[in-house]
From TrEMBL:
<dbReference type="InterPro" id="IPR027417">
    <property type="entry name" value="P-loop_NTPase"/>
</dbReference>
<keyword id="KW-0805">Transcription regulation</keyword>
<dbReference type="Pfam" id="PF02954">
    <property type="entry name" value="HTH_8"/>
</dbReference>
<dbReference type="Pfam" id="PF25601">
    <property type="entry name" value="AAA_lid_14"/>
</dbReference>
<keyword id="KW-0067">ATP-binding</keyword>
<dbReference type="GO" id="GO:0043565">
    <property type="term" value="F:sequence-specific DNA binding"/>
</dbReference>
<dbReference type="InterPro" id="IPR003593">
    <property type="entry name" value="AAA+_ATPase"/>
</dbReference>
<dbReference type="InterPro" id="IPR025662">
    <property type="entry name" value="Sigma_54_int_dom_ATP-bd_1"/>
</dbReference>
<dbReference type="InterPro" id="IPR002197">
    <property type="entry name" value="HTH_Fis"/>
</dbReference>
<dbReference type="InterPro" id="IPR058031">
    <property type="entry name" value="AAA_lid_NorR"/>
</dbReference>
<feature type="domain" description="Sigma-54 factor interaction">
    <location>
        <begin position="309"/>
        <end position="539"/>
    </location>
</feature>
<keyword id="KW-0547">Nucleotide-binding</keyword>
<keyword id="KW-0804">Transcription</keyword>
<dbReference type="InterPro" id="IPR002078">
    <property type="entry name" value="Sigma_54_int"/>
</dbReference>
<dbReference type="GO" id="GO:0006355">
    <property type="term" value="P:regulation of DNA-templated transcription"/>
</dbReference>
<protein>
    <submittedName>
        <fullName>Sigma-54-dependent Fis family transcriptional regulator</fullName>
    </submittedName>
</protein>
<dbReference type="InterPro" id="IPR009057">
    <property type="entry name" value="Homeodomain-like_sf"/>
</dbReference>
Length: 615
């Protein structure tokens, strides 16, 4: 490939957020960016470490496979004879768990032909002094192999073949399967038949696919089209969904020409498995919360528990309901609303009324921490990780919030690079301290908040779409004060005595005209601005009555004429959409399912709109 063209493609690959693979006309991989490595699981794994090698006679081999022959290198019952298992009843598609000595007859196993009807398949045995527990969970889709309480757990989407090999003399891990085994050529079948496996761990040489043939790394009907495009054929393939190495993706193929000559082709890859999984989790969460509502929702109890949320308007009653529900679940909550609406107060109340209330509540303002320090503040660091680091190292906020709640405030301000690291941590529920090799588990409940429209930020390219789906499991929209002016009297009644007491003044009251002006004002700064206005009024008022001239509001209105407010077309369209949804619900007397069907809106989208418009 021409050097200028190579440099151009490498620079392009480094900045795009999708997976990017470039092959030359022979099918040899020239470029393979980090995002593609992440999608297909071939980044260096710093979890369990072991050297490279091969399975040898006498090694203890443990296999857990949810569908024999599907994602294990086409493993067959003939291959299982390598670990002493000879059973003609085992067929392709069977769920299988087995333990045996390599090239010996000593073994034990369980299997189930009709795996589609299973919820869990277990094997718990003692084998040559090792405590072995294996589990295939078909509902939560994971396979877990435990050897003497050491856990080797892998999640899957459709199918998986998982294997752990133990040295019988040292009783140490000789090999453990990890994500990306298809790309690495480390399928169970290949290793049972003598193929060498790579080492894992920080000291091991990183696995590279550059220079390998694309057929040696990826399995999919798409690869034929990709190769033909690299050779010069006209291939049209844009944004199509297809499985690669068992992972659901959305792909596009781009032929690459230079000086009228076909140099190869590029493949753009997006992982769709995360979005599908999160949307499923979200639908399940909504269904569960609707069922919980009948049991948990008691108006008096909610009002008593959340009396700090002031207001009896419909909008705030709905907020209290959602906050109550949010406190009863461990799902990630996303608090939405303008600055000053009380998102921090709501986050504390969710924690205070949940099952983690006796454990830490850690408030992290993502906007106030310098970008260079954010990673070490969130995840902590080891001793000597960087210049100026404490000798003993430091725990990060995620560790400090263990068994409690971490509140990621102003998450919309988080730098893009840090968003990627946070997504990985939230997705895998694990993280590494800066400079550390030990994988730590996230044991905190997560609440996020932002005053930004994250969907707009995604379009601008400042916020990751996959992170948005990860945190937007249980959204709570807190309306601005101008949308709930019925609450202003109650807010003033409760806030004013507290302000007077804090400032050492006798309790003051608000005149009727001053209260009218407070109710007419639009409150761009919301509750925070109201508190500041009242505090200023208390300070400047000499008597016991606060009059309108003591308020110093920025845009007093002297008439009742309702002026046309200039808004964007999108805002006007949102108002129309909200009105249509509300009227449809009235027609069906609040029956959400009937309204959804009448409007021909999908369930997830419908509930998004209910939250968005505070209906």
């Amino acid at each position: 490939m021409h050097m200028l063209n190579r440099d151009f493609i490498r620079q392009f690959a480094d900045v795009i957020s999708e997976g990017f693979i470039f092959i030359d006309s022979t099918g040899s991989i020239e470029l393979y960016n980090d995002k593609a490595k992440s999608i297909f699981g071939i980044l260096n794994n710093y979890g369990i470490s072991h050297d490279s090698g091969r399975i040898e006679k006498g090694d203890i081999v443990i296999i857990a496979d949810n569908s024999l022959g599907k994602d294990d290198g086409y493993l067959s019952k003939k291959d299982l004879e390598k670990i002493g298992i000879k059973d003609k009843k085992i067929t392709n598609g069977s769920a299988f768990i087995g333990v045996g000595k390599y090239e010996e007859s000593d073994s034990l196993y369980v299997y189930e032909k009709n795996a589609e009807n299973l919820e869990v398949l277990n094997l718990i045995e003692k084998f040559h002094g090792l405590d072995i527990e294996c589990e295939i969970d078909f509902l939560d889709k994971y396979v877990n192999i435990m050897v003497d309480k050491i856990e080797f757990k892998l999640s899957y989407i459709y199918a998986i073949g998982h294997m752990v090999v133990i040295d019988p003399k040292s009783r140490k891990v000789k090999f453990c399967q990890s994500r990306g085994y298809t790309a690495k050529g480390e399928s169970i079948k290949a290793l049972l038949n003598g193929k060498k496996f790579l080492g894992k761990g920080k000291s091991q040489e990183s696995f590279s696919v550059v220079g390998k043939n694309i057929y040696d790394v990826h399995e999919s009907p798409l690869i034929d089209k990709f190769y033909k495009a690299a050779q010069g054929e006209k291939i049209s393939y844009k944004n199509k969904s297809i499985e690669i190495n068992g992972i659901p993706t959305r792909c596009s193929i781009y032929p690459i020409d230079y000086e009228n000559k076909r140099l190869g082709a590029a493949l753009k890859v997006e992982d769709t498995s995360l979005i599908k999984k999160i949307m499923k989790e979200r639908d399940e969460a909504i269904d569960n919360l609707e069922r919980m509502e009948k049991v948990l929702y008691k108006t008096k109890d909610i009002d008593d528990s959340f009396s700090d949320i002031i207001g009896d308007s419909k909008g705030m009653k709905d907020v209290k309901k959602l906050v109550h529900k949010g406190s009863q679940t461990n799902s990630t909550v996303l608090l939405l609303g303008e600055s000053g609406t009380g998102k921090s107060l709501v986050a504390k109340l969710i924690h205070k009324n949940g099952n983690r209330k006796n454990n830490p509540f850690i408030h992290v303002n993502c906007a106030s921490i310098p970008e260079k320090l954010l990673e070490s503040e969130l995840f902590g660091y080891e001793a000597g990780a960087f210049t100026g680091a404490k000798r003993e190292g430091k725990k990060g906020y995620f560790q400090l919030a263990e068994d409690g709640t971490i509140f990621l405030d102003e998450i919309g301000e988080m730098p893009k690079v840090m968003q990627s690291k946070l997504l990985k941590a939230l997705q895998e529920r694990t993280f590494y301290r800066v400079g550390g090799a030990a994988e730590l588990e996230i044991k905190a409940r997560i609440i996020c908040a932002t005053n930004k429209d994250l969907e707009d930020e995604i379009k601008k390219g400042t916020f990751r779409e996959d992170l948005y789906y990860r945190i937007n499991v249980f959204p709570i929209y807190i309306p601005p004060l101008r949308e709930r002016k019925d609450d202003i009297y109650e807010l003033v009644r409760k806030m004013l005595p507290n302000i007077c007491d804090r400032l050492n003044f006798n309790v003051k009251k608000v005149s009727s005209k001053a209260m009218y002006d407070l109710a007419e004002y639009d409150w761009p700064g919301n509750i925070r601005e109201l508190e500041n206005v009242l505090e200023r009024a208390v300070n400047v008022t000499e008597g016991s009555i606060i009059h309108e001239h003591n308020l110093f509001l920025r845009n007093d209105k002297n008439n009742n004429e309702k002026e046309f407010v200039v808004k964007t077309l999108k805002d006007h369209m949102n108002e129309v959409e909200k009105h249509i949804i509300m009227e449809t619900l009235k027609v069906y007397k609040g029956d959400k399912r009937k309204a959804m069907e009448a409007l021909n809106i999908k369930k997830t989208s419908f509930y998004d709109k209910l939250k968005k418009y505070n209906i």
